[in-house]
Amino acid sequence: MPVAALAQTNQPPRDAQPASSNVQGGQYPKIDPERRAYFRIVAPDAKHVSVSLPGGDRMSQGTDGVWTVTTEPLAPGFHYYSITVDGAAVSDPASQSYFGTGKMSSGIEVPSPGEDFYLPQDVPHGDVRAHYYFAGSTGLIRRCFVYTPPGYDTNLAARYPVLYLQHGMGEDATSWPRQGRAGFIMDNLIAAGKAKPMLVVMDDGGITPGAMSGPRRGGGPAFWDKFGQMLIQDIIPMIDSTYRTIPDRDHRAMAGLSLGGTQTMEITQAHLDEFAYIGVFSAPFGFPQVPRGFNGLLGDPAAFARQVKVLFISYGTAGDLASRGTLRFHKELEQAGIKHVFYQSPGTSHEWQTWRRSLYEFGPLLFQDTHDDHR
Amino acid sequence: MPVAALAQTNQPPRDAQPASSNVQGGQYPKIDPERRAYFRIVAPDAKHVSVSLPGGDRMSQGTDGVWTVTTEPLAPGFHYYSITVDGAAVSDPASQSYFGTGKMSSGIEVPSPGEDFYLPQDVPHGDVRAHYYFAGSTGLIRRCFVYTPPGYDTNLAARYPVLYLQHGMGEDATSWPRQGRAGFIMDNLIAAGKAKPMLVVMDDGGITPGAMSGPRRGGGPAFWDKFGQMLIQDIIPMIDSTYRTIPDRDHRAMAGLSLGGTQTMEITQAHLDEFAYIGVFSAPFGFPQVPRGFNGLLGDPAAFARQVKVLFISYGTAGDLASRGTLRFHKELEQAGIKHVFYQSPGTSHEWQTWRRSLYEFGPLLFQDTHDDHR
Q: CB A45 to CB B48 under 8 A?
């Protein structure tokens, strides 16, 4: 069948597979080996239906009332999308939905041939725990997610370092465990002996549109001052008293993606006594000035390298909105002779595949500069 | 303002509050003190929009293109819903979505005045862990959720009894922790000294439409034979080797809701050597025959009471589709002098508030008939 006819009918080829992000038993969307997605949406009375993915605005209605489309080839990894039906932007009940872009978005997982570092494998698995706690600074019961590595429940004398890992704007504490697959990435790194067993704490950074109101003050917008305060006053002490951590700066890291990367830079600069490892994935702005940043430490490369065991910065090469700022900061650091790790995710944009890869690159660098081994 | 004008504008009264099931910062839907919900959906080009809740088909479009409706007063508790836009049944990006009715459904939480047993309170909280494991009988990596009670991580010598708790048709392992709020219910019961600390394991019973294909055989549809086999061969041994359980029948319970209640009856009858406590919430069918059921044990009330420490059956009084069958079974048990616990949830239907209350009633009955105390 010629390509034009295929496109017209939007009939998926026989080797197209249901997306792994579909609900149980869901057949559509399907994805073919060229990474085109095939959608089928029942909307008999609609005048216009579209899917917010490249090519998804070319939907057409069949005589059976079903709207279909074949998208352009999609980038590997995870993409948010929504469906628009006669002007209403809504979510697809056939796909898992995820808190992202400030709402319950649909998501589609596009396979990435040759990459399996973020997929569940037959290796020992840590648990990802939903943990509820009372945060005194807010007077509210909050939830975070805590990854405890394989062996945590059996090696009862072992204590572990901790990575605090933050999501981006319009996301929340669920984003790294779900969209980011942080648990599988850590399982695979630890099983391969590439990363030390560690806890990963994923909390809500308060950077959804609904939570970002409030006055700005000198040091930055109030919404992340608030999270920084909560992290130091409530979350870290709670984690250190609830789980078997090694409660010092040499065994504590912080990383974040996008606006969570900006938060990471703000919070770690203000609390260098708390964190020795820093990861900044696709931060759109907020890079410290060289040499004044980090309380002047960026003016003293040797002192900086003693204090900050790893400074990791990254972005994706395919149009990541954070590329310019990150690249400029990288060059400034390089010129000033400041030790850091720079990573570019090939062919991905400001999206989860960039951040999954960033975690996979950052994880092995953590807590290696210590004399103890808690394996 | 007269009621008619209010209904026409669908303007929520000042004391209406955003539903707790809304996404972060989401203002709509709102719920007023009479439990009416107010929806606002932007769909400028649509000809017809409706919400699948009582009264939700009366939506009207304002001059701003926004569709609004005020529902009838809703029953307290959790309800699935979807939005239909010009014939397309879709999900609401403004509400959390939940796997239910075989798809990602929107959900709305309606307050229940005077009931807080399922709400997060300032009491010690257990963790709800996403746990991944390899199931030999299927060759697949599976996920379950495991509630570990407060103290599990500090009382390292303690061992705990286990409740296996199953969802209904078109739902999955996420349903009890999310819609059911099983963690908060157990936290509150344990904090009040009403229930013994226990683990609660919530796995996927394989009863979504997509998973229920396959041949029937003598003992019942193949889809729950398969889950029963997996529970006995894979899940229970995995839980007993991963967590600090008391691995015997006197410290093991099984319960389920709706079709998960039917599964519970099938599986516990076939494996009475594994379970001493049984909970059947709103099972639509599958009740054992008296006196032949439970391998004839229902013909010997004294022997049954020795074997089955608690048989708990329940339904909601407001039109629960399970009411007739459950009531008949209750009467048969009563006439035969079989010890059991019968619970009717007042004013609720075949829905989550019935099952939350059922867990709250069932939990305190568990593992009391033992001579040890693992508190």
A: yes
pTM: 0.94
The interface pTM score, or ipTM, of the predicted complex is 0.93
Contact criterion met (CB < 8 Å) for A92 and B90: yes
Q: How far is CA A130 from CA A127, A177, B128, B129, in A?
A: 10, 10, 5, 6
Neighbours of A44 (CB within 10 A): 12
Tokens for B18, please give them: 């955003």
**Short-list B339, B343, B340, B341, CA closest to B355:** B343
| Of B218, B179, B321, B309, the residue nearest B261 (C-alpha) | B321
Q: Are B345 and B353 in contact (CB under 8 A)?
A: yes
For residue B316, give the nearest of B365, B342, B351 by alpha carbon: B351
The answer to whether the peptide bond before residue B29 is cis (omega within 30 degrees of 0) is yes
A162-166/A140-148 β-pairing: unpaired
By C-alpha distance, the chain A residue nearest B40 is: A88
Whole-angstrom distance, CA of residue B88 vs CA of residue B83: 8
Q: At what angle do helices A222-230 and A259-270 cross, to 10 degrees?
A: 60
* B175 phi-psi bin (left φ>0, alpha ψ -120 to 50, beta other): alpha
Residue for token pair 């930055």: A220
* Interface touch B141/A156, C-beta < 8 Å: no
3-state secondary structure of B126: coil
Say how many C-beta atoms besides its own lie within 10 A of residue B2's C-beta.
7
* Site from A68, A83, A104, A152 to mutate, B interface, most B CB atoms within 10 angstroms: A104
User: At residue A259, does pLDDT exceed 80?
Assistant: yes
Residues 215-274 of B with CB under 8 A from A: 242-244
Interatomic CA distance for residues A98 and A345, integer angstroms: 23
Q: What is the pLDDT of residues B233-291, one digit of tens each?
A: 999 999 999 999 999 999 999 999 999 999 999 999 999 999 999 999 999 999 999 99
Q: Hey, are the CB atoms on B45 and A45 less than 8 Å from each other? A: no
Q: Tens digits of per-residue pLDDT, B88-134? A: 999 999 999 999 989 999 999 999 999 999 999 999 999 999 999 99
Q: Which residue in the set A96, A120, A127 is minimally distant from B141, CB to CB?
A: A120
Closest to B356 in 3D by CA, of B325, B314, B310, B318: B314
